[in-house]
Every structure is written in C-alpha cells, then in structure tokens.
Specification:
There is one protein chain. By secondary structure, the protein is of the alpha+beta class. The protein has 2 domains: 215 residues, Barwin-like endoglucanases, CATH 2.40.40; 139 residues, Barwin-like endoglucanases (Ribosomal Protein L25, Chain P, Beta Barrel), CATH 2.40.240. It has 9 helices and 16 strands. It has a 6-stranded mixed β-barrel with strand order 5-15-12-14-13-16. Helix 2 packs antiparallel against helix 3. The protein is globular and about 65 Å long. 34% of the residues are buried.
Length: 401
C-alpha cells in the first residue's frame, strides 16, 4: 500500500511521462507535415540576408520535397526559349551515364524528360506539375537549405584597336605556346610578359574594366566608331580565384562598406594608387576570344537574363532545371523581406562558384544589368526538378536540431 506522499510522487512522475510522450507525438506530427511540402511553406522569421531563423538541418546534399506547396511560376515565352537552349546543351554535351550527388542519382535522360514535361505546360501556370515532377532541395553550405544568390552580367567597355595614351591596357587572347605554368595576374600586368606575342585583342581605358569583364567571363567591347564586338571566355591561367572584396574588408585603412561592383569601381577610379595592390590580390586571370554570337555560358548556349545560372557542376549538373525561392528586397533598406518562386536553368560555371551553397544569376547586358547584378547578394532556397520518382525519401526526425 502506497503512503500518501508516495502516491502523490507516483502521480507526478506518471504525468511527466505522459506529457513527454505527448510532446514527442506532437513533434512527430510537425515533422510529418513538413515531409509532404517544402520547408518554405512554413512561416520563418527572416534575417535581413534572407536566411530563415530556426531552419532545420538537412540530412543529405539533396532532400526530397513535393511540389504541392510551391507556387509554381508561369512558363512564359522567355523561359520556353531558355528550356530549348537547355535541351541543346544536353544534346551537344558529352553525356555522362549518370551523376551521383549524395544519395541522389541523376541521369541525363532525366534532365531531358524534365524539359519535355515543363515545355508541355508552356505559356500556362502548371498547376498539376507535382503529378509529373519531384523537387529535391539542395542543402547549401550550412546544410539548412540556404543558398547564396549573387549576380553577374555582360559588361560593355570602351576599347580601341591600337594602343595609345587613352587606351593603354591590353586585353589578351590565350597564349597557346606558353611553356610551363602560366603567370599570375600580378606577373602578367607588372612585367608585360606577353609583349611581342601578338596576343592583344584590343586596348581598354581602364584595367579595372578589364578585371570586371574577366570576372563576368565575357563582355562586349565598343570601339570609338560605335562598333561592338563580343569577347568571350577563352580559358584562364589556372591560378585560384581570390576575392578582392574580402581583402578590402580586412584593411582598416579602407572605409568602404558597400562592396558592390559599382562602388568598388568608383573607389578604385578615385584611388588609382591602390588599383594594382587590390587587383593583384586575385592571381586568377581570364583570356578572351572574339565571337560574333550572343553571350554564352560554359554550356555553349546563349544565356538568358534572370533564368540562366552559373553553378558548381559537382553539385548541380549543367542542363538541370530548377525552382528557386528567390530573395525579395525592401527597396529602401535593401534587406530581404520575403521570397518569390522562379524557374532557373544551369547553363554556366564560374571561378568563384564553389560548393553546394552558391549560384550566380545572369542579369543581361550593360550598365543597368550590372547594377542589378551588383546588388544581389542574399540567401534563398533551391530545388532541382526531376521526373516523378516512385519512392521518394522524406526528411527524418533526426534532421531537426
């Protein structure tokens, strides 16, 4: 027979056990509700950079989510054109048998089938897309699904065909007969190592303009008579990319809080004594070739403004179709106030794009595109689209912190 105090203690312990069980069941119900739809369907507080407070850990590079809770965008004419170029990219490329990325196996035939399905909904809002396609979320660098979006564009810079006091800085073709390792940016520009090799394509007013054209991978040059010509990517010196933005941030004597392209250009144009010091922090150097076509990416197809992205193809294969949860900004304070869904196509690569948590979005040609590209530097989410799988893998309880 229990004494009165023992009976009371027994009731307290029993209540605690029941309460813990109920709490555990509630947590399981919450997890199940997430399994069937994207995490973006839940309400999260956003940091000003677009990251979601309290986002759960993902267990693999790609995690299955259904499309039911994604507000799939309209497949309009520009995206149909981007899809057609994605098809050409896959048809022209040397096909691998498959891509193994984490636990996800992707066949080139899957990428083509995804294009077929999306094109079957052209010029409409594909309300029943979830019957035919699955979405797999990439885990980002933090394994919480946060993907950093930055922008790039095709600049237009003033050049001349001959060197002069105004047009001093050469833009080089790739040296095919160079013996040994190619030199760094500092060695090339300080020592005139390519002089006499007939590699000069044109001469620019500013080496800062050349630097940012190299960073974008291609650019239009405009001659004094108004004629324009495309200079396309033609290889690099195989030295690693280093961020001049990070170098500027480390220097206590440089008060530059806005690290957009235009802001850095203005700073360097006003501080010519620091141009070499800052640009030489990046040893990577890009070469160009004259082309008569539209700007193309590594997939050798024309790039499409707001759809084409540069990726690390170890994590996102070229030719893939994706849906992005893309950052939306407060125009006054330029902080992320939400996200909108966009289709995207992987058609390019970039020297600064490394890992599973960063893609570069193409914005088009010229100064307006450059301004938009320079302002984009925030986080969202990204899903690769693939034909419906029979037995998708859902997120597990252990993925929550």
């Amino acid at each position: 027979m229990f004494k009165q105090w023992e009976y009371i203690l027994f009731l307290i312990v029993a209540a605690l056990i029941i309460g813990l069980a109920c709490h555990h069941n509630d947590l399981e119900i919450e997890v199940e509700s997430i399994e069937a739809s994207p995490l973006d369907a839940r309400q999260y507080k956003l940091r000003k950079n677009g990251k979601r407070v309290g986002a759960p850990l993902l267990m693999d590079v790609y995690t299955y989510y259904g499309l039911d809770s994604i507000d799939v965008p309209v497949i309009d004419a520009p995206f149909v054109e981007a899809l057609e170029n994605n098809r050409k990219l896959l048809e022209f490329s040397k096909r691998k048998k498959h891509y193994q990325i984490g636990d996800l196996r992707i066949n080139p035939s899957d990428l083509l089938a995804t294009i077929d399905i999306l094109q079957s909904y052209q010029y409409t809002k594909p309300l029943e897309l979830s019957k035919y396609l699955d979405a797999y979320q990439i885990w980002g660098n933090d394994q919480k699904g946060h993907v950093r979006y930055t922008g790039y564009y095709t600049p237009v810079i003033a050049v001349d065909r001959t060197q002069s006091e105004e047009f001093r800085y050469p833009i080089y073709d790739r040296p095919l007969d160079w013996a040994g390792a190619l030199p760094t940016r500092a060695a090339i520009e300080s020592n005139n190592l390519f002089e006499g090799l007939d590699l000069e394509l044109a001469y620019a007013k500013s080496k800062v303009d050349i630097y940012y054209m190299q960073l974008q991978g291609s650019g239009f040059v405009e001659y004094p008579n108004g004629e324009k010509e495309l200079f396309a990517y033609n290889g690099n010196n195989r030295h690693p990319y280093r961020s001049i933005e990070k170098y500027i941030m480390r220097r206590d004597d440089i008060e530059l809080t806005n690290l957009s392209i235009n802001s850095i250009k203005r700073f360097l144009n006003s501080n010519s004594n620091l141009v070499d010091t800052i640009l030489f922090q990046n040893p990577s150097y890009t070469f160009f070739a004259k082309k008569r076509s539209a700007p193309k990416g590594a997939g050798n197809v024309p790039l499409h403004s707001d759809f084409s992205i540069a990726v690390d193809k170890r994590y996102i294969p070229l030719g893939a179709c994706l849906i992005a949860s893309f950052p939306v900004y407060d125009k006054v304070h330029h902080k992320v106030i939400g996200h909108e869904y966009r289709f995207m196509v992987a058609q390019d690569v970039g020297g600064a794009i490394r890992g599973a948590g960063h893609v570069d979005v193409y914005h088009g040609v010229g100064d307006v595109a450059g301004k938009k590209a320079g302002q984009l530097n925030s986080y969202g989410q990204l899903w690769i689209l693939l034909p419906k799988a029979p037995t998708p893998q859902y997120i597990s309880l252990e993925s929550f912190e």
